[in-house]
C-alpha cells in the first residue's frame, strides 16, 4: 500500500532508534543507564497495549493482568522450582498467552465501555488472586529473585542479568524484537484489518473479515507482548510483587500510549520515556510533583492532541508508522 | 433470466419490533431491481438482512441455491454479495489505495481486480494517495462502490448511492450501475429519486410496512405514475 521508499525509511528509522539505544549503553551515566533499561521493558508493555488500543481501537483497563501473568509465570517458576531463565521466561509467555486467550474469548463478547469494565474486572480478580495465593506469591511483599536465579550458564557462556550492562542489553534485545515484530504486524494484512475494525467494525465485516477472530488474535498478541515484558521485568530486576498487578499498571500503559501517540510504533516508547522523566525530575524538586506532571500533560494534550508522534505524523512526517 | 437472489417470507425484528413481515422478492441475474418506498418502509432493513446484519427470524434468503441466513455476516460477502451502505462509511483515516487494498485482501486475484475496479472509476486513480475522509461526496461514493466491487460480487446492494450528490456525480453513478449490469452483476438499488430509478432500473419492487407489495417493470412505472403516488407519496 505504501511505496517501497517509505518502507525503507520506516525500517531505517527503527534500526536507527535501536542503534542509538545500543550506543547509549556505553555512554550513559549509571543512573540513567538503569532508568533506560527499565523504561525499555515498560515500553514493551505499552507496545502490547498499543496493539489493542491504538490499532484495533479496543480500550482495555486490564492489561496489568497480562504483565502480571508474565511476571508471575517467570517469577514463580524461577523462585519456587528453580527453573533456568529461558524456561522461566517461556513460562511467563505461556501464562500470558493462555490468560489472554481466555480473557479474549470472554471479554470480546462486549464492546466499548463494557469491554473496558470487563477487562478491568478480570484484572482486579487477577490482582486479588496474588493475595489469595500469598503463600506462593507473598502478596505485596513479593518475591525477590536471588542473584543465582538470574544467572545463566550454557557451557562456557555466562549471562549475568544482575550486571547493569548485561541487563541493559537484555532489555534492549527484548525491546528491539518486540518493536520489529510490532512494525511487521501493523504493516501486515492483519494490522490493516485491525485499523479497519477500529474505524468501522461493521464495514470490515461486510468486506468478508471475521472481526471477532482478528480481535482475538490482537488480544492474544497484545497479552503475550505484555507478558514478555512482565517475565523480563521479573528476571532483569529480580522482584515479583502484587503492585505490578494493580490497576495502576493498567492505566500507565494507556497514558504512555496516549502521550507518545496511539497507533504509532515508536509512540509507546516515547510516551513511557517522557512520563518517566517528567515524574522523576519533578519529584526531585517538590512533593507536589503530580501537580506539575498534570500541567505538563495538559500542555501536551493542548499542543499534541494525538500524542507526541501522532501529532508529528499528522502535521509533518506523514510516513511515520 | 434465472434468479440471482430469492427472498421468501422474511421476518426481521429490531428488538421486539417487527420491521419485515414475510417479505418476498426475487432478483434476476444481471438485472437492476429497485426498492422504492417511504422512509421506514423496510428497504434498508431488507439489505441488512441479506447481509446478515439483521438476523432473520423466519424465511429464507438464497443466493442461487445457497442459503444465506445460516451464514455468519462476514461470510456473506465471501459468498458473493457486496453492500454499499447509505452514507458510504469509508475508512476515513486510510488513503484511497488502502481502502481498495482492504477490499481486495480477501480475494486471490488482487492486481487484476484492482485494475478492473479502477478502470470503472478512473477518477480514483488520481486520488490513490489521498485520505478518503478528504474526498468529495461523489468521490467517496465511487470509492465505497469500488471497495465493494473488489469482492467481485454476483449481487451488489446499493443503499441510496445518489443521496446528497451533485447531478454530474449522480450521472456517473448511474453510468457505473449500467456498466455493471452489462458485466452481469445483479443489483438491488434502494433509491428515493424516481428519475434515477427510471433511468437505471429494470424492475421496481414497492415496499410498504415491511412487505413487498408489488413488483412492476420500469416501462409499467413510466406508463402509470400512480404507482409512485400510491407507495411513495410523490409524483
TrEMBL record, chain A:
Topological type in the membrane: Multi-pass membrane protein
Compartments reported by the entry: Cell membrane
Protein name as catalogued: Branched-chain amino acid ABC transporter permease
One GO CC term, this protein: plasma membrane
Transmembrane segment boundaries: 6-28, 35-55, 88-107, 113-133, 168-186, 216-240, 252-279, 285-305
Span of the signal peptide: none
Primary location class: membrane
GO molecular function, one term: branched-chain amino acid transmembrane transporter activity
Keywords for this protein: Cell membrane, Membrane, Transmembrane, Transmembrane helix
Species of provenance: Mesorhizobium zhangyense
InterPro entries listed in its UniProt record: ABC_transp_permease (IPR001851), LivM-like (IPR043428)
TrEMBL record, chain B:
CDD domains: ABC_TM1139_LivF_branched
SUPFAM superfamilies: P-loop containing nucleoside triphosphate hydrolases (SSF52540)
Entry-linked SMART domains: AAA
Keywords tagged on the record: Amino-acid transport, ATP-binding, Nucleotide-binding, Transport
Domain spans labelled ABC transporter: 5-234
InterPro entries: AAA+_ATPase, ABC_transporter-like_ATP-bd, ABC_transporter-like_CS, BCAA_Transport_ATP-bd_LivF, P-loop_NTPase
GO biological process, one term: L-amino acid transport
PROSITE patterns reported for this sequence: ABC_TRANSPORTER_1 (PS00211), ABC_TRANSPORTER_2 (PS50893)
GO molecular function: ATP binding; ATP hydrolysis activity; branched-chain amino acid transmembrane transporter activity
UniProt similarity note: Belongs to the ABC transporter superfamily.
Name the UniProt record assigns to this protein: ABC transporter ATP-binding protein
Amino acid at each position: 500500500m505504501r511505496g517501497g521508499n517509505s518502507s525503507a525509511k520506516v525500517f531505517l528509522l527503527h534500526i536507527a532508534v535501536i542503534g542509538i539505544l545500543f550506543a547509549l549503553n556505553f555512554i550513559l551515566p549509571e543512573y540513567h543507564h538503569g532508568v533506560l533499561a527499565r523504561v525499555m521493558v515498560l515500553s514493551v508493555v505499552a507496545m502490547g497495549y498499543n496493539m489493542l488500543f491504538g490499532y484495533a481501537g479496543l480500550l482495555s483497563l486490564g492489561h496489568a493482568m497480562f504483565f502480571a501473568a508474565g511476571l508471575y509465570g517467570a517469577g514463580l517458576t524461577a523462585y519456587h522450582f528453580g527453573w533456568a531463565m529461558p524456561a522461566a521466561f517461556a513460562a511467563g509467555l505461556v501464562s500470558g498467552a493462555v490468560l489472554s486467550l481466555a480473557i479474549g474469548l470472554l471479554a470480546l463478547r462486549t464492546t466499548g465501555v463494557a469491554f473496558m469494565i470487563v477487562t478491568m474486572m478480570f484484572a482486579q480478580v487477577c490482582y486479588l488472586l496474588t493475595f489469595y495465593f500469598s503463600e506462593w506469591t507473598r502478596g505485596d511483599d513479593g518475591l525477590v529473585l536471588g542473584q543465582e536465579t538470574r544467572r545463566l550458564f550454557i557451557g562456557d557462556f555466562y549471562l549475568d542479568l544482575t550486571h547493569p550492562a548485561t541487563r541493559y542489553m537484555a532489555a534492549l534485545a527484548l525491546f528491539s524484537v518486540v518493536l520489529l515484530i510490532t512494525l511487521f504486524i501493523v504493516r501486515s494484512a492483519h494490522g490493516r484489518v485491525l485499523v479497519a475494525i477500529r474505524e468501522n467494525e461493521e464495514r470490515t465485516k461486510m468486506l468478508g473479515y471475521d472481526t471477532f477472530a482478528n480481535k482475538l488474535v490482537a488480544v492474544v498478541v497484545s497479552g503475550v507482548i505484555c507478558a514478555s515484558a512482565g517475565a523480563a521485568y521479573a528476571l532483569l530486576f529480580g522482584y515479583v510483587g502484587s503492585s505490578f498487578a494493580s490497576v495502576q499498571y493498567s492505566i500507565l500503559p494507556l497514558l504512555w500510549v496516549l502521550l507518545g501517540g496511539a497507533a504509532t510504533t515508536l509512540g509507546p516508547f516515547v510516551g513511557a520515556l517522557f512520563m518517566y522523566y517528567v515524574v522523576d525530575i519533578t519529584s526531585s524538586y517538590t512533593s507536589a510533583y503530580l501537580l506539575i506532571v498534570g500541567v505538563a500533560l495538559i500542555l501536551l494534550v493542548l499542543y499534541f492532541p494525538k500524542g507526541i508522534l501522532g501529532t508529528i505524523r499528522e502535521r509533518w512526517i506523514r510516513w511515520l508508522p | 433470466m434465472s434468479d440471482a437472489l430469492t427472498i421468501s417470507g422474511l421476518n426481521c425484528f429490531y428488538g421486539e419490533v417487527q420491521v419485515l413481515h414475510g417479505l418476498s422478492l426475487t432478483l434476476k441475474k444481471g438485472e437492476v431491481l429497485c426498492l422504492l418506498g417511504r422512509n421506514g418502509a423496510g428497504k434498508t432493513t431488507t439489505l441488512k438482512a441479506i447481509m446478515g446484519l439483521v438476523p432473520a427470524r423466519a424465511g429464507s434468503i438464497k443466493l442461487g441455491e445457497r442459503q444465506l441466513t445460516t451464514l455468519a455476516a462476514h461470510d456473506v460477502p465471501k459468498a458473493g454479495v457486496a453492500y454499499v451502505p447509505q452514507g458510504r462509511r469509508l475508512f476515513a483515516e486510510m488513503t484511497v489505495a488502502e481502502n481498495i487494498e482492504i477490499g481486495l485482501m480477501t480475494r486471490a486475484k488482487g492486481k487484476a481486480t484492482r485494475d478492473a475496479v479502477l478502470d470503472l472509476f478512473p477518477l480514483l486513480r488520481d486520488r490513490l494517495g489521498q485520505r478518503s475522509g478528504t474526498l468529495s461526496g461523489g468521490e467517496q461514493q465511487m470509492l465505497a462502490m469500488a471497495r465493494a466491487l473488489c469482492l467481485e460480487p454476483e449481487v451488489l446492494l446499493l443503499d441510496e448511492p445518489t443521496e446528497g450528490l451533485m447531478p454530474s456525480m449522480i450521472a456517473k453513478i448511474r453510468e457505473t450501475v449500467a456498466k455493471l449490469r452489462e458485466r452481469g452483476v445483479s443489483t438491488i438499488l434502494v433509491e428515493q429519486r424516481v428519475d434515477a430509478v427510471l433511468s437505471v432500473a429494470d424492475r421496481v419492487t414497492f415496499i410498504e410496512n415491511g412487505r413487498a407489495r408489488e413488483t412492476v417493470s420500469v416501462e409499467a412505472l413510466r406508463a402509470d405514475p400512480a404507482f409512485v403516488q400510491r407507495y411513495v407519496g410523490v409524483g
